[in-house]
Amino acid sequence: MRPDDASEIRALPLFRDLREETFADLVTAGFLQRFPSGVTLIQERERADFLHIVTDGMVEMYAGTEGDETTLDLVQPLGTFILAAVLKDQVYLQSARTIEKSRIVMIPAEKVRQAMSQDAAFMTAIVMELAGGYRQAIRDLKNLKLRTGTERLANWMLGQAGEGNRVPLPCEKRVLASRLGMTPENLSRGFATLRAHGVVVSGNDIEITHRDALIRYARPDPLIDQREADTRLTLGHHPGTAEA
Fold it and tell me: Chain-centre distance of CA 33, in angstroms?
């Protein structure tokens, strides 16, 4: 692992306050690998062997049953997965694959559990990380249950745009549709509906031409859309941990 990679990982809330010797043990046990797009990194139902840290690229968290599949999250630098399964020494509840060229640091699960038992600061950071992941899961659930697909799409655009007016698509439209709980056809209809509310789509570029109109339609709610510090990445927001 390069010193720059170790320095970036050290800055993560999960590792920021560890004793030097604890962090050194984790980094020494870990290793960095480069993966092309489309590589399955973990599969649900397999026991958790590693804590993964995305240092470059993008990873899709997904799950499936009887031929159906859905996207649960997208993890970008610097994001980790999957802490809960690692700590409980249980099987993964979701799978992960790269959706672009990615660099992944892999730290053995046993080393993570050992460090947690020996370093009180690490234990505290883990509790906060899991708490943040739980709160984000509730926000995601409220978003899914209290809004239509087009409303979810509108609020996603506003979150991605920040103070700007342009939103580059971070992934294929079918992946975005799945992440938002929509079919590709519903996503296309959603984009068409939002044209009347100040949205112009050209290929993979989205432009918000009338922000006030889009806000009136989306009705953003801070209890759903406001991201807390040090929480997991949710489709291009703040990086952190995908839990489960």
Answer: 19
- CA 200 to CA 192: how far, in whole Å? 9
* pLDDT tens for each residue of 197-238: 999 999 889 999 999 999 999 999 999 998 766 433 334 333
Query: How many Cβ atoms sit within 10 Å of the Cβ of residue 140?
Result: 18
- Position 239: which residue type? P
Tell me the Cα Rg of the chain: 19
Q: How is the chain classified by DSSP, letter by letter? A: --HHHHHHHHTSTTTTTS-HHHHHHHHHH-EEEEE-TT-EEE-TTSBP-EEEEEEES-EEEEEEETTEEEEEEEE-SSEEE-HHHHHHT-B-SSEEEESS-EEEEEEEHHHHHHHHHH-HHHHHHHHHHHHHHHHHHHHHHHHHHHS-HHHHHHHHHHHHHTTSSEEE-SS-HHHHHHHTT--HHHHHHHHHHHGGGTEEEETTEEEES-HHHHHHHH---HHHHPPPTT----SSSS--EE--
pLDDT tens-place string over residues 12-71: 999 999 999 999 999 999 999 999 999 999 999 999 999 999 999 999 999 998 888 999
